[in-house]
């Protein structure tokens, strides 16, 4: 039986509710059960990544943190250290949204506000390198997903190009899915979300700048028509990859 660590990077009074919703979203998208998962909420500098030898893979949810913040507080610095532990290991890791910004910054890329996307639909298009990737090669050439972010990866040219592969881009965000090395992936889009999940997340972060409050109803009403099948399937493919890898190692 596959055993995954699901990590939530949440802080403050809403942390328990947001983390619980995120856990539901990931399990819903992947088909994982409680018996197959351990949910770790890093809501303070006292919470650290456990012994990874007990797990077959790790999924890290999004965060209200930003790489572009002028000052990183002690909690954000702690989060960065924990993500470094994860990505330095050989265990498969999939990071969502903030994780893409952090990973790009970590390998020497540039993160900025040029390609921010408001909450709602985004289009994801595979690059030619996706055909050789163990996850992305199972996806259609183009699909839709849900998103919402105030910063994004702007340039990976300064990174170690031998380690970084852009697997998907899009018309409104040029870096949608990347792989670093052979075991770490990060999506800018929310691979775990469906319409219900997006509305709930919008309610949690109503005043965070992910959308204009006057557009709230229009966005929410549009959500059920957005196809998240292949976006969610990407996470399910990751889980199956972890299970196969564990069974053959």
Automatic annotation (TrEMBL):
Q: Which InterPro entries match?
A: ChyE-like (IPR044992), Class_I_gatase-like (IPR029062), GATASE (IPR017926)
First-tier enzyme category under EC? transferase
**What single Pfam family name could you report for this chain, choosing any that match?**
GATase
Q: What is its EC number?
A: 2.3.1.46
Q: Which UniProt keywords apply?
A: Acyltransferase, Transferase
Q: Quick check: keyword Acyltransferase in the entry?
A: yes
UniProt keyword Translocase, yes or no: no
Gene Ontology molecular functions: homoserine O-succinyltransferase activity
Give the superkingdom in one word. Bacteria
Residue ranges of every copy of the Glutamine amidotransferase domain listed in the record:
43-201
The identity of this protein, by name, is Homoserine O-succinyltransferase
What are the TM regions of this chain, as residue ranges? none
């Amino acid at each position: 039986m596959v055993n995954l660590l699901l990590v939530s990077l949440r802080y403050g009074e809403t942390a328990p509710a947001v983390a619980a919703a995120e856990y539901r979203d990931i399990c819903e998208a992947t088909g994982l059960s409680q018996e197959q998962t351990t949910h770790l909420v890093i809501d303070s500098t006292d919470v650290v990544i456990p012994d990874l030898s007990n797990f077959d893979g790790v999924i890290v949810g999004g965060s209200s943190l930003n790489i572009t913040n002028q000052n990183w507080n002690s909690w954000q610095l702690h989060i960065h250290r924990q993500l470094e532990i994860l990505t330095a290991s050989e265990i498969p890791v999939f990071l969502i949204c903030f994780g893409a910004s952090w990973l790009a910054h970590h390998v020497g890329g540039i993160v900025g506000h040029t390609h921010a996307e408001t909450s709602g639909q985004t289009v994801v298009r595979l690059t030619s390198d996706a055909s050789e990737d163990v996850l992305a090669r199972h996806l259609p050439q183009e699909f839709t997903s849900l998103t919402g972010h105030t910063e994004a990866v702007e340039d990976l040219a300064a990174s170690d190009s031998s380690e970084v592969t852009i697997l998907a881009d899009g018309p409104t965000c040029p870096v949608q899915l990347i792989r670093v090395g052979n075991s770490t992936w990060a999506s800018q889009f929310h691979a775990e979300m469906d319409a219900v999940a997006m509305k709930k997340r919008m309610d949690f972060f109503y005043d965070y700048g992910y959308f204009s409050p006057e557009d709230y109803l229009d966005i929410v009403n549009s959500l059920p028509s957005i196809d998240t099948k292949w976006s969610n399937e990407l996470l399910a493919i990751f889980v199956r990859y972890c299970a196969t890898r564990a069974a053959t190692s």
